[in-house]
Amino acid sequence: MPRVPRTLQKTYDKNRDGLIDTNAVNIEGIEGPQGPEGPQGPAGADGVSVTGATSDGTNITFELSDGSTFNVPWPAQ
């Protein structure tokens, strides 16, 4: 039998035709060290908070701090 690294022995044993299935085993080696941190990204949009909530029996309406509303259907019982 040809000399096969231990990590590939199981794959070799499954492929007695002498071919090693490189899709089944990672043969690239160990992961290298982490690279340097990238540049700071742009600032994100300001968030909003919930300032109130009401329900009409069909929907729950959330009032948001920017003056907008967000409607969610009332959960089925």
Descriptive overview:
The chain is mainly beta. It folds into two domains: 1-30, no CATH class; 44-77, no CATH class. Helices cover 8% and strands 22% of the residues. The protein contains one helix and three strands; from the N terminus they run αβββ. It has one helix at residues 9-14, and strands at 50-55, 59-64, 69-73. A three-stranded antiparallel sheet has the order 1-2-3, with no helix packed on it. A hairpin with a 4-residue loop joins strand 2 (59-64) and strand 3 (69-73).
Secondary structure layout:
Elements: H1 9-14, E1 50-55, E2 59-64, E3 69-73
Antiparallel strand pairs: 1-2, 2-3
Strand content: 15-25%
Q: Order of helices and strands, N to C?
A: HEEE
Provide the low-confidence segments as ranges: none
General shape = elongated
Give the N-terminus to C-terminus distance in angstroms: 68 Å
User: What is the domain total for the residues?
Assistant: 2
Q: Tell me about the largest β-sheet.
A: 3 strands, antiparallel
Integer-rounded radius of gyration: 29 Å
Mean pLDDT: 77
In total, the number of strands is 3
The number of helical elements comes to 1
